[in-house]
Amino acid sequence: MSNNLNVNVDKNFSWETIQKELRHQFGNEIFESWLKKIVFEEKFTNYILVSVSTRFIRDWIVSRYLDQILGIIKKFNKEIIRVEFKIENKVNNNKREIEFGSDSKVSFIRDSFLQYNRIDQNKSFENFVIGQSNKLAFEAAKKVSEKIAHYNPFYLYSGVGMGKTHLLNAIGLKLKENKKVTFISAERFMYQFIKSIKSNEMVKFKDNFRNTDVLIIDDIQFMNGKEAMQEEFFHTFNSLIDKGSQVILSADRPPSKLVKIQERIKSRFSGGLVVDIQSPENDLRLKILEKKVDELNMLYGEKLKLSEEILNFISSEIKNSIRELVGALNRVASFSRIYNRVPNLNEIKIILKDLLNINETKITIDIIQTLVCKYFKISKNEMLSSRRSRYLVRPRQVAIYLSKILTTKSLPEIGREFSNRDHTTVIHSVKTIEKLKCDNTEISNGISYLKNQILYKKENEI
Ligand code: ADP
Ligand code: MG
Q1: For residue 131, which of 272, 315, 261 has the smallest C-alpha distance?
Q2: Would you say the CB of residue 325 lies under 6 angstroms from ligand 1?
Q3: CATH of the domain at 69
Q4: Is 129 among the domain residues?
Q5: N or C: less crowded end of the chain, CB within 10 Å?
Q6: Per-residue pLDDT, 167
Q7: CB under 8 Å to 94, separation ≥6 — which residues?
Q8: Percentages helix, strand, coil for the chain, rounded to the nearest 5?
């Protein structure tokens, strides 16, 4: 037997299996560099707790991979709707901690895993879908890829998951046909810098970065290093611009809002062309979904066919980021693969629950009572009466139980809404149903059904 502490006792939930799937879906490089660092701590009813060693790693994983990770976990356990991270500084022999910047720590694993200049063939101008919100950024990026050093530097910013890396990658892909392109994340740049100092290879570092025609640095907001590094970066930057090389940068905010970056660097960033990508409009979201469905079918031989209703639902509900939108579609595709059919709208609401803006505070005891009465075919007056017939007692207990688990109301508050019953009655009902749920499948199925109804039915549908 494995003595891996990460293996959970819950038979249906093995962290090892999830890790395998993470490695499979993200590939070795990302898995070894980042995801392997996630330590499983504990599983709760609808979330899991994991830990990583630094805040930086947590932010990195959360901003890039969380959505997909959650999708994978859900495949094994549908109940899980979120992953919570805590920072746990366990001693680990595989990694060194190098401090730079006043309060940030970055931990590294063996460098062989971290490689840069990995331009992704699948992120090109051709498969970048254009709409109002990203048209300007797309056109600017296109121009930069046609004539270098005209807009210098080219600075692209937006919130996460809006297509910055995709566009940067597209520029790199195009220019690398006949130019020397260096594509690196800011985090990797810092890593290289520190490694070079430690191994006395600063000359090599300088040569490497100053001898490129195009330097693309992604997520510059993560560059928050010490003075010496900023100094070096400033000189690299100036020398590239002076010799007519193109510098391209992306960040999650405009240059003026960057923190821990020297003023003079920020002002250099603003000196070329600064363009942002706005939040995607509905039309663009729909076009992206359609395009991605085509890609899945064409490139990966899927046979995914989503109705207009479903496409409209996903595109109108998932507004914040294109990454989330694509992630949502991938979940739907995984479901279809596993069950050999497309999920219906209700199932989609469940699969995407954590991404949808379903406001749980809207769940009221009144709604719970209405739905429970409908389910058991009794009237609300009967539910709220003092009669103790068996066919009324059970539904009443179920409604009380659901009120307890789905709202934040206290026991006395719940009692009051059930015709001023005492809080001890509420406790008794909750205990009775909890017990019945374990022993009686009919009850437990009924409760799952009602829970879904309450969570996913909008008020006006009742
Ligand atoms: P960012 O770097 O801004 O966080 P990414 O470039 O990583 O965002 O985009 C997130 C995901 O959405 C990627 O899979 C990317 O290919 C996809 N994506 C973003 N914008 C578009 C677009 N306009 N057309 C097609 N795919 C897009
Ligand atoms: Mg990015």
Answers
A1: 315
A2: no
A3: 3.30.300.180
A4: no
A5: N
A6: 98
A7: 109, 110
A8: 55, 10, 35
pLDDT at 102: 29
The per-residue pLDDT for 399 is 97
pLDDT, mean of each 10-residue run, the chain (462 residues):
40 81 86 86 85 78 84 86 79 35 30 54 94 97 96 96 96 94 88 85 87 94 84 92 96 93 93 96 96 88 89 93 92 86 88 70 85 96 94 96 88 94 94 92 90 67 45
For the chain, how many structural domains are there in total? 4
Instruction: Indicate the residue type of 267.
Output: S
Q: Does residue 336 have its Cβ closer than 6 Å to ligand 1?
A: no
The whole-angstrom separation of Cα 389 and Cα 168 is 69
**Does one domain contain both 270 and 139?**
yes
| Residue 457 confidence (pLDDT) | 64
Please count the other Cβ atoms lying within 10 Å of the Cβ belonging to residue 153. Answer: 25
For residue 162, the ligand 1 atom closest to its alpha carbon is 3
- The Cα–Cα gap between 97 and 107 comes to 5
240 with 155, same domain: the answer is yes
* Residue 110 located in a structural domain: no
Q: What does the alpha-carbon distance between residue 95 and residue 225 come to, in Å, rounded to a whole number? A: 20
Q: Which domain holds residue 248?
A: 135-276
- Position in ligand 1 atom list of the atom nearest CA 128: 24
What phi and psi, each to the nearest 5 degrees, are found at residue 107?
-110, 145
Does the residue 125 lie in any domain? no
Quick check: is 120 in a domain?
no
The domain that holds 197 is classified in CATH as 3.40.50.300
Nearest-CA residue for atom 13 of ligand 1:
323
At CA 400, angle to CA 394 and CA 406, rounded to 5?
Answer: 130
pTM of the model: 0.61
Give me ligand 2 centre to Cα 92, in Å.
29
> What pLDDT was estimated at residue 45?
79
Structure tokens that stand for 4 in this block: 């891996």
Among residues 276, 311, 330, which one ends one of the domains?
276
Same-domain check for residues 332 and 217: no
For 43, list phi and psi in degrees, rounded to 5. -110, 130
Which of 246, 276, 306 is the last residue before a domain boundary? 276
Same domain for 172 and 235? yes
Structural tokens at position 67: 């959505």
Indicate which ligand has the atom closest to the C-alpha of 135: 1
For residue 384, the CA-to-ligand 2 centroid distance in Å is 55
For residue 89, the model assigns a pLDDT of 65
371 & 412 share domain = yes
Token code pair at residue 240: 């590239």
CATH no. for residue 380?
Answer: 1.10.1750.10
Do both 237 and 336 map to the same domain? no
